[in-house]
Every structure is written in C-alpha cells, then in structure tokens.
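Input record (one chain):
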Amino acid sequence: MDTLQIKGTWNDIKGRLKQQYADLTDDDLLYEEGQEDRLIGNLQKKLGKTREEVIDLLR
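The corresponding structure, as predicted from the sequence alone:
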C-alpha cells in the first residue's frame, strides 16, 4: 500500500466518516502523520472491517 493520500483532505474524509458511522469519535479518527497504521487499526476495531475495507473508506 502506498502512503495514504489523506494529509491534505483529512477534514473532509473525517467529516464523511462521522456522517456514515455516527459512533466514531474524534479519538477514533485521530490522525498523526506517519501513524497511518494506528489509525487503520483503530478503525478496524471500531467498525469491524478488514484492513482493505478501512483503506477503501479512507480513499
């Protein structure tokens, strides 16, 4: 997987995910540059989705 291209559009992606999954909190969606794996892991646990499904949601 290439590094996620979310740095510039993170606020848009975060808003879309919050609309789609109302149970996500700001802590679930905490994004730090270089910590993409942590974000993906948190979303996997919270949403019960595979890594690939979470990556598709972030694109």
